[in-house]
Amino acid sequence: MLGQPPSQYPPPHEWDYLGAPKPKRSEKQIVVIVLVTVAIVVIATVVVAAVLYIMVSGLTDGGGATRPVVTFQAPAKGGGASNYTTNISIAAASDPISTFLAFKGQVARDGVPLATIPAFLRTGTLIAFGPNVTLIVRDQNGDGRLNTRDSFLIYGMTGVHAWRFSLIWSSDGSEIVSSTWSTP
Q1: Rounded to whole angstroms, how far apart are CA atoms 104 and 69?
Q2: pLDDT for 44
Q3: Rounded-to-integer distance, Cα 50 and Cα 47, Å
Q4: Residue 167 · residue 177 · CB < 8 Å
Q5: Tell me, what's the pLDDT at 35?
Q6: How far is residue 70's CA from residue 90's CA, in Å, rounded to a whole number?
Q7: Does the chain have fewer CB atoms within 10 Å around its N or its C terminus?
Q8: For residues 110-146, b (16+ Cβ closer than 10 Å) or e, as one string?
Q9: What's the rounded Cα separation, in Å, for the pair 167 and 63?
Q10: Do residues 100 and 137 touch, judged by C-beta distance below 8 A?
Q11: Is 48 strand, coil or helix?
């Protein structure tokens, strides 16, 4: 075009046309990015593994919607004045019965519960009710589920008292069955 100044193509500086050049990343920045990425992947893997473990191991089994039917045999008493014992066996149980974690237990002396909150039942562990009274859950066939012939051993009872053991359904906190006895 005549009468116009000549166009300045390309621009005098390359970055005016393509934009400013990007700064080069230092090796420290790259290392930090890689470490953060690895840390996020490791944390996510641990969280997923923990969730899967809890689901597979039955720890999420809170009892479900179907409340089981359980009956106890008469308690078998033993021991002496300084350490009375009671063994309560399950006479019958509906199938399928949930894992022991679906149940809680409570021991009461003279109508007063010995624990503020009923304890979740676990096989082979000692569950303390107060300073002296202890409960052991005996899983006779070792399957981790409440079945016929499983039993509850309660010991450490002293003095003349009326006792009660209650099997409680964890889902709603209601009592499924209980057994009473007295010492001596």
Answers
A1: 15
A2: 95
A3: 5
A4: yes
A5: 94
A6: 7
A7: N
A8: eeeebbeebbebbbeeebebeeebbbbbebeeeeebb
A9: 13
A10: yes
A11: helix
* Tokens coding 112: 């007063």
* β pairing state of 103-109 and 161-169: antiparallel
Report how far residue 84's alpha carbon sits from residue 77's, in angstroms, rounded to the nearest whole number: 7
Across the chain, which has 184 residues, the per-10-residue mean pLDDT values are 57 57 75 93 94 68 65 84 79 67 88 89 84 86 81 88 90 88 84
pTM equals 0.62
Classify strands 70-72 and 103-109 as parallel, antiparallel or unpaired: unpaired
Give the position of tokens 């503020």. 116
What is the C-alpha separation between 132 and 158, in angstroms, rounded? 9
Q: Would you list the DSSP string of 71-92? A: EEPPPEEEEETTEEEEEEEEEE
Which residue has tokens 């409570």? 106
Residue with tokens 């700064």: 23
Distance in angstroms (rounded) separating the CA atoms of residues 182 and 184: 6
Q: How far is CA 94 from CA 84, 97, 167, in A?
A: 31, 6, 14
pLDDT at 15: 54
